[in-house]
Each structure stands twice: as structure tokens, then as C-alpha cells.
From TrEMBL:
The keyword Oxidoreductase applies. Transmembrane segments: none annotated. Keywords: FAD, Flavoprotein, Oxidoreductase. SUPFAM superfamilies: FAD-linked reductases, C-terminal domain (SSF54373), FAD/NAD(P)-binding domain (SSF51905). Pfam families: DAO. Residues 8-352 form the FAD dependent oxidoreductase domain. InterPro entries: FAD-dep_OxRdtase, FAD/NAD-bd_sf, MTOX. It comes from Lichenibacterium minor. This is FAD-dependent oxidoreductase. The keyword Oxidoreductase applies. GO terms for molecular function: flavin adenine dinucleotide binding; sarcosine oxidase activity. PANTHER family: PEROXISOMAL SARCOSINE OXIDASE.
Length: 373
């Protein structure tokens, strides 16, 4: 057992979920150890990337839309602790090419939350955003309460901050098994025991928590970092975040910001692949993405491809997150389905609250799934 006044918590995973849980626990005085199979942070984690979108516009997930003010607030607390703000507010422009509920549902929940948004007349789209393909556009709006989070900087600064607050990091420590009844983890021949265990193992979570096999399904996803043609570079330098709801799979796009490249991804889940496998995206990986990008962007074939990357996250059936008690002393947290970074810090805070006795274990799954209890 521990010599400190509060219990010792073992956290598996140094992505945004694990590190945020460690951060929220450390703020409450807990002793924390983090086990990470790769380097800390790990470039293979879902969380490790140049940028991530954050937004109040949340389509039909109005439960998550309602959590976004809290999600923004928790990140503000994090910036205060880190002494630096790894977030840039940017407008979000949502484009519609066929009728999908996401478009109007987002506007309704933003009205409820008092988040400003305004329609963009279709006749103005080409002059405001010369990179966009306007053919087939049937609607467009611009929303506030959005922007870009910078995950590599966030993870790196969190690690430095937490190490300074006494969190012990075990890098290159692949946890082979966990026992949530005794809060123990096994790494090779070594067994580590804490008082509480949190498994935040991203796309590998079902290997440690068998109940999640087939529930949180690893999904290989392609993204591309691209360089726009020179005549569009200036327009891209002042571009918003774009979500194009399709035809086909649609795209999401993060504009180049200082220290980041222009990145485009698509909305379709593959629900296949091995997160330990090769991360260079194949032609097959990017085929659908490039086809979708050619529908979103004019002259997409003139863009230079800088990197094709295969990434992983888990996907649940209804795209909700999992946070729940396992065994007598354990918790599992999977902020998944491709939308968990913006809510990652809040999810870590939520798990820490339960461990600290500020919220009951029973409330946790509903809350994390974005449902009212
Ligand atoms: C291409 C892409 C685009 C995305 N875009 C957005 C976006 O725009 N906005 C948004 O909000 N979200 C987005 N997401 C989702 C978001 O990034 C993820 O939901 C979030 O990062 C998940 O964090 P995590 O900590 O749960 O998992 P991870 O970041 O994967 O962390 C899990 C960690 O656990 C470690 N681990 C696993 N097993 C073990 C073990 N046995 N022993 C030790 N360590 C272990 C892993 O190495 C890893 O470091 C995107 C994700 C991807 C991949």
C-alpha cells in the first residue's frame, strides 16, 4: 500500500485520456504512475497529431454538444496549469451537399447553447473560400465556439508538467495484463500494485479489457497532409476549419497554422486493422479519402501530398465514449470514435472525480456516453 495520504493510481496509457486523468488526479493530491508501451507520449497514440478540431457544433449528438462548454472550461484550466494555451479559436464552416440530419441538428443545439452561427449565402462561398468546390453545395454555415487544439504540444507539456508534479512515467512498459480487483498491472515479469487502476489504452483497450472486444473496435483511418497550390496558399493561410458533410464520405479539414500543415481526413470508419501494424497509408487506405477530397476541394489534384498517414482509434456502435468501473478497483476510459480529443480532458476529469468520491461510479457510463442519467 501507499505511504501517501491519498491512494496511488496506476494509469495505463499516455494519450489525452490517460494524461488528463493523471492531471486531474494530481490536482486532487493523488499519487499517479503512468504506464506506456511506447515512448511518452507515443507517436502511435490516437492523440498524437499536429492538430485536432474542437467545436460546439455536434450534429445529432446533442448530449456531447451540451458537454462542450465544460470541455472548453477544462482545457482553460489546463492552459492555466501549463502556462500556455495550445488552442487557437477559428471559425468552423460546415458544408452540406445532400440532406443529412447533422447540419440542422448542430444549428439547433448551438441555438440552445447560445453559440453564434450564421448561414453563408451560397453565392458568396466561392469568393470567400476559393479552395472549395461549390458544385453540388446546398447549404453552408459558419459557427463560432470552435477552433484547433494542438495535441503534440498538449501531450508533451502535460508530460513535463506531470513529471514535475511527481507523476512517475514508465516508458516502454507494455502492460500485458491488468487485474482491476487488486489494481495491479503486469509488465513482463514485473507486477505493479496500486490502490486504483485506470485503463486508458486507446485502440488497444480491448486487449486489456476483454468485455470491450467487439464493442470498442479498432479502426484504421487515413489522413493526408497536403501542400496547396501556390495560388491558394494565401487563402488557406486565413481559412477556417471545414467540415464537408459529403457526398460520399465527406471530409474534415484543418488549415495550416503556425507549426502545422494542412490536413484532410474523411468521415468513414473502416472498423478494421491492427494498431500495432504499419502506419504508412497505402493507396487503398487513401483512395476513398482522396475521392472525397476531390469533391470538397477544387483542383485537389494540384495539391502536393506531404504525408499519408494511417492512424487508429476505436469505434463504438453509437459513437459514444466508454468510461466505467471494472472490478472493485478499476476503471476503463475510451474516448473514441474519432471525436474524443476535444472532450478528452473533460473525460479524464470525470474519471478523477469518481475516484475522488465527488461523483458516483454509477453515474459515470451515462455521463461519458453523453446521455442524461
Ligand atoms: C485521424 C484522427 C483524427 C481525429 N480527429 C479528431 C478531431 O478533430 N477532434 C477530436 O476531438 N478528436 C479527434 N480524433 C479522436 C481523438 O484523437 C481520440 O479520440 C483521442 O485521442 C483518444 O485518446 P486516448 O487517450 O483514449 O487514446 P490514445 O491517444 O491512443 O492513447 C492510448 C495510449 O495507451 C497506450 N497503450 C495501449 N495499450 C497499452 C498497454 N498494454 N500498455 C501500455 N500502454 C498502452 C498507447 O500506446 C497510447 O499511447 C481523431 C483521431 C484520429 C486518429
Amino acid at each position: 500500500m501507499t505511504h501517501s495520504a491519498l491512494p496511488r493510481v496506476l494509469v495505463v496509457g499516455s494519450g489525452i485520456a490517460g494524461l488528463s486523468t493523471a492531471w486531474a488526479l494530481t490536482r486532487r493530491g493523488f499519487a499517479v504512475e503512468v504506464f506506456e508501451q511506447g515512448q511518452v507520449p507515443n507517436a502511435k497514440a490516437s492523440s498524437y497529431d499536429e492538430h485536432r478540431i474542437t467545436r460546439h457544433a455536434y450534429g445529432t449528438f446533442d448530449g456531447y454538444a451540451r458537454m462542450m462548454p465544460d470541455a472548453f472550461r477544462v482545457y482553460e484550466d489546463l492552459w492555466a496549469d501549463l502556462g500556455v494555451r495550445h488552442f487557437e479559436p477559428l471559425p468552423l464552416v460546415v458544408l452540406k451537399r445532400e440532406d443529412v440530419p447533422w447540419f440542422d441538428a448542430s444549428r439547433a443545439s448551438m441555438d440552445e447553447l447560445d453559440v453564434a452561427h450564421r448561414d453563408i449565402p451560397l453565392g458568396e462561398v466561392a469568393s470567400r473560400y476559393p479552395m472549395l468546390e461549390t458544385e453540388g453545395l446546398t447549404g453552408a454555415y459558419e459557427a463560432e465556439g470552435a477552433g484547433v487544439l494542438f495535441p503534440i504540444r498538449i501531450l508533451t507539456d502535460l508530460v513535463v508538467h506531470l513529471a514535475g508534479r511527481g507523476v512517475r512515467f514508465h516508458a516502454g512498459a507494455r502492460v500485458d495484463a491488468v487485474d482491476p480487483e487488486t489494481a495491479t498491472v503486469r509488465v513482463g515479469a514485473a507486477t505493479h500494485r496500486g490502490d486504483v487502476l485506470v485503463v486508458a489504452a486507446g485502440a488497444w483497450v480491448d486487449r486489456l479489457v476483454p468485455r470491450l472486444k467487439g464493442v470498442a473496435v479498432p479502426s484504421r483511418q487515413a489522413v493526408a497532409f497536403v501542400a496547396p497550390p501556390p495560388d491558394l496558399a494565401e487563402a488557406w493561410s486565413r481559412a477556417p476549419v471545414f467540415i464537408d458533410l459529403g457526398l460520399a464520405s465527406g471530409t474534415y479539414t484543418l488549415p495550416p497554422r503556425p507549426g502545422t500543415r494542412l490536413k484532410v481526413g474523411d468521415h468513414e470508419f473502416t472498423r478494421r486493422g491492427d494498431p500495432d501494424g504499419d502506419r504508412l497509408a497505402t493507396d487503398e487506405d487513401v483512395a476513398r479519402l482522396f475521392a472525397a477530397a476531390a469533391l470538397s476541394y477544387r483542383d485537389f489534384d494540384r495539391y502536393g501530398v506531404l504525408e499519408r498517414k494511417a492512424c487508429f482509434y476505436t469505434v463504438t456502435e453509437d459513437e459514444s465514449f466508454i468510461a466505467e468501473a471494472i472490478g472493485a478497483r478499476g476503471y476503463v476510459l475510451s474516448a473514441c470514435s474519432g471525436h474524443g480529443f476535444k472532450l478528452g480532458a473533460l473525460m479524464g476529469e470525470g474519471v478523477a472525480r469518481v475516484i475522488a468520491g465527488e461523483r458516483t461510479r454509477d453515474e459515470l457510463p451515462h455521463w461519458a456516453a453523453g446521455r442524461r442519467a
